[in-house]
From TrEMBL:
Protein name (record): tRNA modification GTPase MnmE
UniProt cofactor note: Binds 1 potassium ion per subunit.
Function of the molecule: Exhibits a very high intrinsic GTPase hydrolysis rate. Involved in the addition of a carboxymethylaminomethyl (cmnm) group at the wobble position (U34) of certain tRNAs, forming tRNA-cmnm(5)s(2)U34.
GO molecular function, one term: metal ion binding
Species this protein is from: Parapedobacter indicus
Sequence similarity: Belongs to the TRAFAC class TrmE-Era-EngA-EngB-Septin-like GTPase superfamily. TrmE GTPase family.
Record: residues binding GTP: 228-233, 247-253, 272-275
Binding site residues for K(+): N228, S247, I249, T252
Length: 453
């Protein structure tokens, strides 16, 4: 373990909760708190114990606190960690942190606790990143994916791949020492089989990103259709149901907004748009172009039609345009409350879902259809999903390097070329878990954390 100084930060959010936790980590954490704590002698207490007492700045009592001790290496950072639970007053917290800094602690930088956990081997880089995801998770699905990654599911898969490759790399590098003699320690057929197998795993991981990303960031859904078909009304109906749980602010109808709705644990990000066909003047045309861009990027389109205004031919024309975007879509006829039997009979040819956005009719069926269309596989607890673009990029580079190894084997290239590409592949795999890392990379990852994490 490297020798670090002792850092301190507020670990809980500032706000109106009753209790705040101030965390210290480092070799001096316990003696440093002990000097200002009146209660038991903390230096003599066991790990994972909690102690009541007061914190004092000279003779002045700052607060009654609970002090939790975690003695190295049995802590989050693998260093000595002290957590002080105080009353959640900004004044008290500020005073205590200042006091601890005067005793020799240093204010922690963003993510520094987790950075130490990584540097001290408590977790690998992808697990550290999962901690940030876990804290940010807002749905059951994103929580499950982050949890899986944090507990090392992804890391274990990568570790196995690396170990297998390292074995071959060392055999091939052995051949380099005997280059005059044309020996082959590494069986080429076996190497090829191994790489095909590894690439297969890597491709599955890369493919899982689509689902992983959707679970982490939400499914982008565009609600499209002509003005007045009821797009905003639908979005409000979807949102109100959701929001009724947390607040009863009346939904207001706005245009081009984006909002999240949680459907059975999956976050959908709904994007309400201006109509897709009102291209009459230039300004509107721009809006339409934007809409089209959004639609192309969406994972799903809900196309809304209002047969009061558009006949079947017109609706079919619009659907043809949607179809060209090559994005899965759901055809929905709104204002079912106003439809005649004749409408319904003709519309059956396009097989729509009939809803009334205003009266909340058919909206549950629409939700079920949306879930069905995104086609998320049920996550088993052991499923590993890649949710991080940095990881996907590293996996793609690994795959490229391994592909070169395969070409090399087929082309009977010399061992040194094979060794070079295998090393490349190992390098990129290592970037994910952090067995290969640079200060810039670490900086980039941990600076996005909050202070105290
Ligand atoms: P947008 O332009 O597509 O966003 O359409 P709006 O959501 O603003 O709705 C246009 C009009 O249609 C409003 O007056 C809504 O109240 C009305 N509307 C929306 N859904 C329904 C519905 O299911 N039935 C009826 N009768 N009217 C609806
Ligand atoms: Zn609208």
């Amino acid at each position: 373990m490297a020798n670090y100084d002792t850092i301190v930060a507020l670990a809980t959010a500032t706000g109106s909760g009753a209790i705040a936790v101030i965390r210290l980590s480092g070799p001096e954490a316990i003696p440093l708190v002990n000097r200002v704590f009146k209660g038991k002698n903390l230096a003599e207490q066991a790990s994972h114990t909690v102690h009541f007492g007061t914190l004092r700045d000279g003779a002045e009592v700052l607060d009654e606190v609970l002090v939790s001790l975690f003695i190295a290496p049995h802590s989050y950072t693998k260093e000595n960690v002290v957590e002080i639970s105080t009353h959640n007053s900004r004044y008290i917290i500020e005073r205590i942190i200042q006091l601890l800094i005067r005793q020799g602690a240093r204010a922690a930088r963003p993510g520094e606790f987790t950075l130490r956990a990584f540097l001290n081997g408590q977790m690998d880089l992808s697990q550290a990143e999962a901690v940030a995801d876990l804290i940010a998770s807002t749905s059951a699905a994103s929580h499950q994916v982050a949890m899986q990654q944090m507990r090392g599911g992804f890391s274990n898969v990568l570790k196995q791949l690396r170990e297998q490759l390292i074995q071959f790399a060392s055999l091939i590098e052995l051949e380099l020492d005997f280059s005059e003699e044309d020996v082959e320690f590494a069986n080429r057929a076996q190497l090829k089989a191994l790489i095909l197998e590894i690439n297969n795993v890597i491709q599955k991981l890369i493919a899982s990103f689509e689902q992983g990303n959707v679970l982490k960031n939400g499914v982008p859904v565009v609600i499209a259709g002509r003005p007045n078909v009821g797009k905003s009304t639908l979005l409000n109906t979807l949102l109100n149901e959701e929001r009724a749980i947390v607040s009863d602010i009346a939904g207001t109808t706005r245009d081009t907004i984006e909002d999240e709705v949680n459907i059975q644990g999956v976050t959908f990000r709904f994007i309400d748009t201006a109509g897709i066909r009102d291209t009459l003047d230039v300004i509107e045309a721009k809006g339409v172009e934007r809409t089209r861009e959004k639609m192309k990027k969406a994972r799903l389109i809900v196309y809304l039609a209002d047969p009061q205004h558009d006949d079947l031919e017109e609706i079919k024309n619009q659907l043809a345009e949607v179809e060209q975007l090559d994005v899965p879509y759901v055809t929905v006829v709104n204002k079912v409350d106003l439809l005649t039997q004749e409408h319904v009979d003709t519309l059956y040819t396009i097989d729509p879902l009939f809803i009334s956005a205003k009266n909340n009719v058919g909206v549950e069926e629409l939700k079920a259809e949306l879930l069905h269309k995104v086609n998320l596989h049920d996550l088993g607890t052991d499923d590993v999903l890649v949710t991080n673009i940095r990881h996907v990029e590293a996996l793609r580079k690994t795959e490229d390097a391994l592909q070169r190894v395969l070409y090399g084997i087929d082309g009977a290239v010399t061992s040194d070329f094979l060794a070079m590409d295998i090393r490349q592949a190992l390098h990129h795999l290592g970037e994910i878990t952090g067995s290969v890392s640079t200060d810039d990379l670490l900086d980039n990852i941990f600076s996005k954390f909050c202070i105290g994490k």
